[in-house]
Amino acid sequence: DWVETKPMGMELPIHFVGALPHVTSDMHAGGRDFKLETMVDTGATAGSLTARFLKDHRLTVDTTEETIVGAGVGGTTRGRLFRPTSVEIGSKTFANPVIAMDSTKGGVIGEGSNFDFLMGSDFLRRFIVTLDYPHNRIFLQPNSDADKPFEADKAGLRIYSEGPDYRTYRVVGIMPGSSGEKAGLKVDDIIATIDGRPTSEIT
Description:
There is one protein chain. The protein is mainly β. It contains three helices and 18 strands. Strands 2, 3, 4, 5, 6, 7, 8, 9, 10 and 11 form a ten-stranded mixed sheet that branches. A three-stranded antiparallel sheet has the order 1-13-12, with no helix packed on it. The model has no long low-confidence stretch (mean pLDDT 89).
């Protein structure tokens, strides 16, 4: 006999925009509260506010200098990083997460975007995620990473892995004022060794 079991965790409704799952999240930043149309992207690394949202909402917050904040099939995206006071997903509140403010006008998260916030693995890795498409819902069960602080990239580098075996590491972006810049690294530098170990041996 078939037994239907219900996944554990918070149950949130999802709706689809262009066949992609969306939920609603909340953000408090710059002394204001925002309700965000949020795309769930299991293939993205970090969270990012879209250029559409930022065009309609001017945030008064401290940010980094502009740098490369993402990359995909269409190339790189630029923006600034900041920490909102909190982001709430269902009943789970994250304090001071690191989020990108995208300044790229085109592309999926540009000014023509159909959502406000891209929720990537920086948030999703803190849950056991179950997507139930037939019933238009997602289950998010907090895991052992749920309450860990969000760490910012301390090197300030954006690096591509290239070549037939993806073991050639090229610097494609450096955040101004970062330790990477202070170390003298430049865009298009190839990182050959790390602590004396050839990067070709690193997976």
